[in-house]
Amino acid sequence: MFSRFPVTLAVLLLSVLVLGACDDDDGGGDPSASLEMVNIPAGSFTMGDPSASHEINERPAREVLINAFSMSKFEVSQKLYSDVMGENPSSNKGDNNPVEKVKFADALRFCNALSERDGLTPVYSDIDGAVKANFDANGYRLPTEAEWEYACRAGTTTDFYTGSTLEDLQSCGWFSGNADGHTHERGKLAPNDFGLYDMHGNVFEWCWDWYSQNYYAQGVNNNPHGPAGGTQRVCRGGSWFVYQYGCRSSFRSMLEPKYDSIDIGIRLVRNAG
User: Fold this and answer.
1) Is the N-terminal amide bond of 60 cis, ω within 30° of 0?
2) Alpha-carbon torsion 45, 50, 54, 55, what sign?
């Protein structure tokens, strides 16, 4: 799988306002059966590895502009996925654990099904063919790679949103050093300044972008959506299975969309408004 202007404090404080979004009709207050969204403000950040000391595919670091959007506070739970899709593909079962073993196309189907359930316009079409994304639609979708890193960093420039040491990662992420070989319930470790949990570890999260090692050098710096094509899709965030290095904010992983994995799940976004 391994293949600066920072956000101002005032904007960060505004961003922790939580939207009470899209509770499952039968959830009865069960947090595993709902999708709680957090407002992520517009801004700019340094995307990638400015130290040029890590992976080649994290360079060159560059200033990227991101429009406002909302992101799910937690990774999608097995309960919510099962309620919407009628099945739970996960290996390590638990209603409040993140869903895993989800293929890329099934992640898109979940986005569309949840959008339709909640009266929103689906984003994706021709999922089994030359899939297209309507980024103007108000439905749920996967984050772009740039949206993901911007939301993960929440104004920080360190390896993890809590710092750069092993102890810093242990405070916010389930990884090979503390996860005991499996996923864990969502939201049990420290959130970032946007109020997002488990952005480091637990499960990798599919992003929309096709993967290209050299994409950063192309200089697409205004809400980039990734290359026009490829053979692998980007996964971000690290997982319970990987070491500290693979959980960094700028670390880029990738997988062919036809595959699933016991450590790949989903986090959703929607356009602001």
Assistant:
1) yes
2) positive
The SS3 assignment for 18 reads: strand
pLDDT at 31: 78
Give the Cα separation of 37 and 30 in Å (integer): 15
Using CB atoms within 10 Å of the CB of residue 164, give its burial: 0 to 12 exposed, 13 to 18 middle, 19+ buried: middle
How do residues 34-52 score in pLDDT, each as one tens digit? Answer: 899 999 999 999 999 999 9
C-alpha span between 173 and 253 (Å, rounded): 17
pTM of structure: 0.89
The model's pLDDT over 172-194, given as tens digits with 9 standing for 90+, comes to 999 999 999 999 999 999 999 99
Distance CA 74, CA 32 (A): 9
What is the DSSP-derived secondary structure letter of residue 208? E
**HSE (side-chain half, CA atoms, 13 Å) at 175:** 22
The first and second tokens of residue 20, run together, are 């009470």
How would you label 14-50 residue by residue, b for 16+ Cβ within 10 Å and e otherwise? ebeeeeebbbbeebeebbbbbbbbbbbbebbbbbbbe
Cα–Cα distance for residue pair 229/232, rounded to 1 Å: 9
Distance in Å from the first CA to the final CA of the chain:
35
Place of tokens 């992520």: 40
Cα 60 from Cα 217, distance rounded (Å): 6
